[in-house]
Amino acid sequence: MTSRCILVTGAGSGIGAGIAEHLAGQGHHLVVTDLDPAAAGRVAEAIVAAGGSAEAHALDVAAEASVAGLVAALPRPVDVLVNNAGLQHVSPLEDFPMAKWDLLVQVMLTGTARVTRALLPGMRERGFGRIVNIGSIHALVASRYKSAYVAAKHGLIGFSKVVALETADADITINTVCPSYVRTPLVDAQIADQAARHGIGEDEVVERIMLAPMPKKAFIGIDELAGITAFLLTPAARNITGQALVVDGGWTAQ
Q1: Which parts of the chain are coiled coil (predicted)?
Q2: Quick one: which of 16, 37, 94, 135 could link to 178 by a disulfide (CB 3.0–4.6 Å)?
Q3: pLDDT tens across 141-163, in order?
């Protein structure tokens, strides 16, 4: 497969870091971005130490100036964008701080649109582009106390469908990968929050809330998401666009 320049947002840890490392191992050049530049730097350094090609940049997807500055500073055009940056806050709506609500939507929905909008003209100019949004099972179903997160992730699917139609005249695709729970630092924090909210132990949160809806009763692996992302870059996936690829252990089959 042709070597591509791939930009991953929120790649300083967790899913973003795993996807970046996997794609670098396939010979691609990775632009590792994160709100925390030190975290992005560590991931890029690990990729280079393993024989791959990578560079690290600070990026705040919720800030127009940050996105514009990064695009202007990149030494080579971006072929593939992985929109992964995200955060969580667990609270019933009546207690949900609206500033926090706005931040979640800004990062996970508006931020996705902002970075996609900035890179799309270059993809059109070169006649190739792949955009992969890291969504969630919560792009399809809801959970209590996660109104901002669920709203933002639901929005990703609609956003992807619109961009798929707008780019149908070019070799550009956009899809949203929707996993159920992946064991990352973000999910570990959710476990603690849910335990406090429901008044139960953390093990009970895992068994009764997170894994209970999944017939396979297992967390999704970062390697699975990395492999799916890699597949979406291949010629075999050139006509897969505007889709939600659901990786949920059977959750939505019920």
Answers
A1: none
A2: 135
A3: 999 999 999 999 999 999 999 99
